[in-house]
Amino acid sequence: MQSSNTSVYAVGDVAAFPVKMFAETRRLEHVDSARKSARHAVAAIMEPEKTGEFDYLPFFYSRVFTLSWQFYGDNAGEVIHFGDFSGKTFGPYWINKGHLVGSFLEGGTKEQYEAIAKATRLKPAIEDLGELERQGLGFALTASQKPSSSSPPLVAGSSNLVIEKPLHAWYATAGVIVAASVATFAYWYGRRRRSKTGCDCFRNSDNSVNLCLPNSIRIEFEFEIW
Questions:
Q1: pTM flag (> 0.70)
Q2: Which of 48, 118, 119, 147 has the most CB atoms at less than 10 Å from its CB?
Q3: CA 93 to chain centre
Q4: Residue-wise pLDDT tens digits, 111-139
């Protein structure tokens, strides 16, 4: 995501970036891609020594009333359907060059969605398409239990979110200090003016008196810090 200018990063669903599992550069127009690419860019800027390459698993989803589906990977190759299309849970697998490259599931549980995501990332070899159709969702549940042959590179996650919290806390603390300082100075200055004149005076820019009010009249000022 780092551009030819090393201080500029291209992120979001309008930016194209290398997708490792496709071995090519693509633009993935979805909110998940936009969020995760931005998080990874921040992590790469803040902690480059701890941040590896962006190994993103393409992900799309939608929810309409009682219908809900999730898709992972690529919709390339031969399609193998599974499940009961008259029921609530069904979907297809995409097999390309003998490997699982994409999975779609309608009406799944959290565990089932996680299973098809992991199985798709593993890209297991598929030798018998008929057996894959017979196993259906069970294939992904079984494949997802197998350990990966290699650990994936670090991807920005919760670590870069932790960085943001101290920054917000610092800004909030600084804002409170500034507000308290302004209020304290205003109170001290007002008391000092009243003790000398017995009234509150408001002056023009040329220091000439514009308006004086007795001390019994209370005037309040509100400060907002943006």
A1: no
A2: 119
A3: 28
A4: 999 999 999 999 999 999 999 999 999 99
